[in-house]
Design a protein that fits this description.
The complex is a heterodimer. Chain A is α/β, with parallel strands linked by helices. Chain A is 38% helix and 30% strand. Chain A has two domains: 242 residues, Rossmann fold, CATH 3.40.50; 59 residues, Alpha-Beta Plaits (2-Layer Sandwich). The chains are: A alpha/beta, B mainly alpha.
């Protein structure tokens, strides 16, 4: 469904020192540098697959999505989405995809959302009966009843996001690019949007690429993860494999029935925290079960749980690990005009 | 074809509703564009001071000319350069680019529908002007009125395309609206808004003929005031169509090249 090979997007940006002197200097001699927003990215996505795109701010996630949806022309590389080249923006391609940007809106600000839906119905040439059916479905899942006739500017952020999603999916696209679709929403609304995306994926076998700063979005929806940083892919695979590779340990949470010195706990792994009879030990993943058995046999344990470390921590560690060596070659001073 | 008509109908209806929300602002913008009415007072005073006529124009001729110029200016007004500049630089063009319809049509329908919101106010001011200056009359001939409708529609489309092309320069420059400001100054002098072109030196009249400016206000005014005969009307329509074609090509070229540079800034 989606094929990306050696995709690159390099921008030339102007640099200026702050203040009057900086302004004058920049007026005479304008310095530029090349920023490699996306730098040789390759991946493939199968039809119906849901993929999570993770990375810190400025990693290249949104730039990649913008190239996949045809908004940006790549500097080099090959992109094919459903057999189309996105940058050509052919009508069948545009009817095939959607891009939801949590921080950009397509709804007309001063009119009810229903008017924007009518515009989309006409533009995407959606027959009346199909439009009514889709609207009924979306109204039910997203609970749109009562908000469609209110002016968009009078809707709450959550209500507006629901309408944005409905407007973006009205033509039932087969490929969804979702860029931070739950940004700024409360937890309940995040869950509602997640359920809607999952339901849409099931019903229409849609391919979904999702970027989000909320790890819960990704863990709830995506089996496969691509981690991108400084424009390069750092990891591509199952969420569980990511945790295994980035976090070679598991967290053993103990509740002891009698006091035990720290030194005895440290025999089993790294003591992460200690609070009276409660302790957290990070143990090597490969022999977690043997260590747990030994621990139960030798220590006064009242309760024990063994878990993977939180995904946020794993990703955080992954980024701090890759940042340092990547730092040097990411940006290149090139010219002074 | 049916689908294209349906798109046009829906866009017109929705944008009419959108523009209606700004009716108070539209009246203010209309008043801001009243230079021809001020010039009308100046030229009438000059004609009266000169014993009844200046350059063959009587006070009622001036009144008819500037009222028609004011009306035409109201019909051709376009702010799309500002909208596009903002959309391109702020990344707001992105949602429009994702849809299978050239954003041009949405901006165009926005402008076209706005004309109908300002129409009642235009007619009130026009009739007030006709009553206030005794003896003033526009053409009573239905043929000229129809020809004016065609000329004014073409003038609007040409002006819209010029503004659109200027707005598209935001793909290359930080602030394309500076050029639209320059257009306003040039247009004020060269479209015939300040004075009928008969009052300009012959070499300027000849040079201006090679630009679209007189075909935006001056010639449509001649049609509405009944000064243009049928051959002149046909010539004006022909030249307007030629400018329409030229500007359509310019816009298409700028759009194609500019899109490659679009940064789609913002998340």
């Amino acid at each position: 469904m989606i094929y990306v090979r050696e995709l690159r997007k390099h921008y030339t940006v102007h640099e200026k020192e702050p203040g009057l002197v900086g302004s004058l200097r920049s007026f005479i001699r304008r310095r530029t540098k090349i920023v490699r927003a996306v730098d040789g990215v390759s991946f493939e996505i199968a039809p119906g697959e849901m993929l999570g795109f993770l990375g810190p701010n400025g990693a290249g996630k949104t730039t990649t999505l913008k190239m996949l949806s045809g908004l940006l022309h790549p500097t080099s590389g090959t992109v094919s989405v459903g057999g189309y080249t996105p940058k050509e923006r052919r009508t069948p391609f545009l009817k095939h995809i959607t891009l939801v940007m949590g921080q950009k809106q397509q709804l007309l600000w001063d009119l009810p959302a229903l008017d924007s839906f009518l515009v989309n119905q006409a533009i995407y040439e959606i027959p009346n009966d199909e439009y009514k059916r889709t609207m009924a479905e979306f109204s039910e899942i997203l609970e749109l009843e009562g908000i469609l006739k209110k002016q968009v500017r009078k809707l709450s952020l959550g209500e507006r996001m629901k309408c944005e999603l409905a407007a973006a999916l009205l033509h039932r696209p087969r490929v969804l690019f979702l860029d931070e679709p739950t940004i700024g929403l409360d937890v309940n609304m995040q869950v509602r949007i997640r359920e809607f995306i999952a339901e849409y994926n099931r019903r229409y076998e849609a391919t979904v690429i999702l970027t989000s700063h909320y790890m819960a979005d990704v863990t709830a929806l995506c089996q496969r993860i691509i981690v991108i940083d400084k424009g390069c892919i750092m990891f591509d695979g199952d969420l569980s494999a990511l945790i295994e590779s980035a976090a070679p340990g598991k967290v053993v949470r103990l509740e002891l029935s009698a006091p035990v010195p720290d030194e005895r706990l440290q025999e089993y792994g790294r003591l992460e925290s200690r609070d009276g009879l409660k302790a957290e030990i990070l143990v090597p993943r490969h022999n977690t079960s043997q260590l747990a058995a030994r621990l139960l046999a030798t220590l006064p344990v009242a309760d024990v749980t063994i878990e993977d470390p939180p995904i946020e921590e794993v990703i955080g560690q992954l980024f701090t690990g890759v940042r340092a060596p990547a730092e040097a070659g990411a940006e290149q001073q090139v010219a002074a005009r | 074809m049916r689908s294209a008509l349906n798109k046009g109908r829906v866009l017109f209806t929705v944008w009419f509703a959108h523009m209606s929300a700004y009716r108070a602002e539209i009246i203010i913008w209309m008043l801001a564009g009243s230079v021809p009415l001020i010039m009308m007072a100046v030229w009438i005073a000059k004609a009266q001071a000169s014993g009844g006529a200046t350059g063959g124009f009587t006070p009622s001729d001036f009144a008819a000319y500037f009222l028609a110029a004011w009306l035409t200016q109201q019909i051709i007004v376009a702010w799309v350069a500002w909208e596009l500049d903002h959309h391109i630089r702020q990344g707001h063009l992105s949602p429009k680019l994702l849809r299978p319809l050239d954003p041009f049509w949405e901006f165009f329908m926005g402008h076209a529908s706005e004309r109908f919101v300002r129409l009642p106010f235009m007619l009130v001011i026009l009739f007030a002007g006709l009553i206030l200056v005794p003896g003033t009359r526009l053409t009573p001939d239905a043929g000229h009125v129809l020809a004016y409708a065609a000329c004014a529609s073409l003038a609007f489309t040409i002006r819209f395309l010029i503004a659109y092309s200027i707005g598209l320069l935001a793909f290359w420059f930080d602030q394309a609206t500076a050029l639209d400001e320059f257009y306003y100054v040039a247009a004020a002098f060269l479209t015939g808004t300040f004075a009928p072109l008969e009052f300009y030196p012959p070499f300027i009249q000849a040079a201006v003929e090679w630009t679209p400016f007189p075909y935006l206000v001056y010639y449509p005014v001649r049609v509405l005031t009944g000064a243009a005969d049928t051959p002149e009307i046909l010539r004006v329509l022909g030249v307007q169509l030629a400018w329409l074609l030229v500007m359509t090509l310019v816009r298409a070229l700028l759009w194609k090249q500019g899109l490659k540079r679009y940064g789609a800034v913002g998340a």
